[in-house]
Specification:
Elements (H helix, E strand, L loop, with lengths): L2 H23 L2 H8 L3 H7 L3 H23 L6 H14 L1 H17 L2 H25 L9 H18 L9 H11 L1
Helix pairs in contact: 1-2, 1-4, 1-6, 2-3, 4-5, 4-7, 5-9, 7-8
């Protein structure tokens, strides 16, 4: 098994453990056991549980970016591309919700490293949305700065998948998609 295969196996196992047990309940030992590798193998690839979680978040964000990039079609209209990119992002809603839940759990635990990770993730996602708006969707000519629009898109998405269910029934993916298109 290659190092890349081991890393994928460990990240998949970590996703399952974090999903089932939360951040606090997940240990490197549990991840190793689930991946059928030794604990030292996990530590060779990831220096800590936080590093493992950060790598998992990076993978999810990379997958989202790749989906959005694949959704973009050079010959399509701006509206068609908006819809395709929103569809690609909303498709990963469950993974995004999982990451948000873990970050929220750690907020309650007051883990400073996780707060810093959350801020890095938010800056990264907002910057990526800003880039999409400028380069792929031609949104740099609005009277609202494009970084503000990117932030509003990100926050609206987060509110719809993570906060809305606390006041009403969770939304269908199609409803989330249409709401996001309205923001754009």
């Amino acid at each position: 098994m290659t190092q890349s295969d081991k890393e994928t196996l460990i990240l998949d196992s970590a996703m399952a453990c974090f999903s089932e047990l939360g951040y606090k309940g997940t240990t490197i030992e549990r991840v190793a056991r689930r991946a059928h590798v030794g604990k030292p193998t996990v530590y060779q690839l990831f220096e800590s549980k936080l590093n493992l979680f950060e790598s998992l978040v990076t993978r999810v964000l990379q997958e989202m970016k790749e989906e959005a990039e694949r959704a973009y079609i050079e010959q399509a209209t701006v509206e068609e591309n908006k819809q395709a990119m929103i569809d690609a992002i909303v498709y990963h809603q469950q993974q995004h919700l999982f990451i948000l839940q873990i970050i929220e759990e750690t907020r309650n635990l007051k883990l400073q490293e996780m707060q810093e990770l959350r801020m890095r993730i938010e800056r990264h996602v907002v910057e990526y949305i800003k880039t999409l708006l400028e380069t792929r969707l031609g949104q740099d000519d609005r009277d609202i700065p494009v970084d503000v629009t990117a932030f509003l898109i990100f926050r609206t998405y987060i509110a719809l998948i993570a906060e809305w269910p606390s006041i009403a029934r969770p939304l269908e993916l199609d409803t989330i998609r249409r709401a996001m298109l309205r923001v754009l």
